[in-house]
Design goal:
Belongs to the actin-binding proteins ADF family. By secondary structure, the protein is of the alpha/beta class. The protein is 31% helix and 30% strand. It has a six-stranded mixed beta sheet with strand order 1-3-2-4-5-6, with helices on both faces.
């Protein structure tokens, strides 16, 4: 497998740890810098509303994202929280961008310890709350 040679910026790891350990953010959007050499933090948010996260995903551009996904456990066990990694690669994004994001994903994904689920989104139905909830909660009993 060819390596894309894309580095993960220190700020990206710091932001991820702030989300994971410090619960400082609800979600983080990552993108490639202009020269496509580094994965950087594009934005962070403390907004608890999942729709606010979806609104940040552009229709024609690729992104990576990490979301601290909270959901209720059945049987009165209360809330559970899992970190979900998103690769957002809409069908309408330029082919070249999709290729670069696909080949660079592993660099970022490997650097982020503690991610519970991976979601690949090519359209909004694949990143809808219920779709993610099903994937995240399905894995809840197996770990």
């Amino acid at each position: 497998m060819s390596r894309s040679g894309v580095a993960v910026a220190d700020e990206s790891l710091t932001a991820f740890n702030d989300l994971k350990l410090g619960k400082k953010y609800k979600f983080i959007l990552f993108s490639l810098n202009d020269s496509k050499t580094e994965i950087i933090v594009e934005s962070t948010s403390t907004d608890q509303d999942y729709d606010s996260f979806l609104e940040k995903l552009p229709e024609n551009e690729c992104k990576y994202a990490v979301y601290d996904f909270e959901y209720e456990i059945g049987g009165g066990e209360g809330k559970r929280s899992k970190i979900v990694f998103f690769t957002w690669s809409p069908d309408t994004a330029p082919v070249r961008a999709k290729m670069v994001y696909a080949s660079s994903k592993d660099s970022l994904r490997r650097a982020l310890n503690g991610v519970a689920a991976d979601i690949q989104g090519t359209d909004f139905s694949e990143v809808a709350y219920d779709t993610v909830l099903e994937k995240v909660s399905r894995g809840a009993g197996s770990h």
